[in-house]
Predict the 3D structure of the following.
Amino acid sequence: MPERARSIWGWGWADRFPDEDARRDLVEKAGALLAFPNLALLPLPALDRIVLPPPRIEAPPDLAAIVRSDAPERASHTYGRSYRDIVRGFRGDFSRAPDLVAIPSSEDDIARVLEWCAKANAAVIPFGGGTSVVGGVEPEVPARFSGVLSLDMRGMDRVLDVDPISRLARIQAGATGPRLETALAEHGFTLRHYPQSFEFSTLGGWIATRAGGHFATLYTHIDELVASLRMIAPSGRFETRTLPASGAGPSADRLAIGSEGTLGVITEATMRVQARPLHRAKANVDFDRFEDGVEAARAIAQSGLHPSNCRLLDDREAMLFGVAFEKKSVLLLGFESNDHALDAWIDRAIAIAVAAGGRCPEGKKTIGPDAVRGERGTAAELWRSAFLEAPYLQSTLVSLGVVVDTFETACTWTRFPSLHREIIERVRAAMKRACGTGRISCRFTHVYPDGPAPYYTFLAPARLGAELEQWAEIKAAASEALMAHGATITHHHAVGRVHRPWYAREVPPLFLDALGAVKRTLDPHGMMNPGALIAG
Ligand SMILES: Cc1cc2nc3c(=O)[nH]c(=O)nc-3n(C[C@H](O)[C@H](O)[C@H](O)COP(=O)(O)OP(=O)(O)OC[C@H]3O[C@@H](n4cnc5c(N)ncnc54)[C@H](O)[C@@H]3O)c2cc1C
């Protein structure tokens, strides 16, 4: 059976990209919904005509078995999957392709590749699933390097060991979400970490970027699930001790977590796994006013109930995802447990939301094992399928001439109202200047006792050839609003190359100096993903 191919420029499987009829249909629907003029079926990139610059470096014979330089391999390691990446891929611009792609299958392979790259003056970019949306895997490195090698972890993708007593699993960094969940399911466990990019992103990528799963409270970031890890740095091996907790100084794990490939290659981690949930309860609560939904989300986040889902969609987001068609905000609530029935939890969360001004119409609550599956037509199910389809829709909209992107943050509940107001104002003004018009919507992806993680989607008509400048103007307006209100430049999308200037303003200057000193120790040649996270 031929291997199923991923799209070289857009999201996901190549065979899932809509055909001409489906794209034509979307031109009509999107045109009507968004009221953008001039949407059109743009010609798809002719991938057989893509020209790559010749590789500037050549692997030595002893690495020939694990290093490739063919065009499809190099092209598919040129970009992540942000709007900018999709636009450049759609234009057929792969001029920044890495010179080489290494596919190691052991830590020794990685050590040998790093050793050779140091001698050859090549930059190394660790590559997991390539789903970065912040330029994390892009071979944009300082000119002092003689070439770039993308180090793809797909050859190290196994669950190595499961300890059912302590509920820990040793998993290789290249395992994708489906790969590791299938292997854990054989033992009755789950990692229960589901970023939207789950299908293609990897454990190593999640740890390197401090990814956020889609559960709304408690263990939202991968950080909390890492019991220990191993990393190969240019100056040596780094292995932490597997412990449930420790108060011994600054955490060694946390040096590697979020390092974005700049300190070394994470090769495996021992992860905290859980029994698979057997009880589920879900409900959706409608609000006429977004502000009341915000109050409800805050009260639930501070109640100690810890719902697995507490996702507030504003009216535009609810409409965009087909959850509601009247002008109302919707709070999606969910609870999961392996141990106990959840009737009391969901009833209390609904009562809190109703007290804040919400309505939970008859039939909008489901309890029991089928509360996720078999609930066709409910808001939660509509949301879930639209959530999984959204990345495909983004690539398709790019092919019709739409600027479409998301950005996300976290801030305190106290700051949220003014931050939200200013983001909407500044982004609308930027879309008007750059594109003539546009629309922005908001949802909460995560909620904490001290604040929400709001996630914004913007759509605007593109001017062909000027899309990246249009996007940059909108992105800068959004990022400046975040800085002005003391919010973070990213709650879970990471820093990469795109967010680096704002990250440098967010953290103390002395911390950046200290991070630079750590990098010099672990990576004396500065060759690990230079330009991502910190200046290269
Ligand atoms: C449609 C879509 C939806 C997304 N949804 C979410 C979401 O819900 N939550 C979320 O957090 N993010 C999300 N993202 C962003 C992205 O999926 C995450 O950042 C993810 O963690 C990246 O994993 P990856 O394996 O694809 O890593 P890559 O994109 O390959 O790499 C990301 C960064 O990690 C480094 N890296 C990768 N593997 C290793 C390793 N083994 N050792 C050291 N460094 C490494 C790379 O050098 C790079 O800097 C989404 C992206 C897309 C396109």
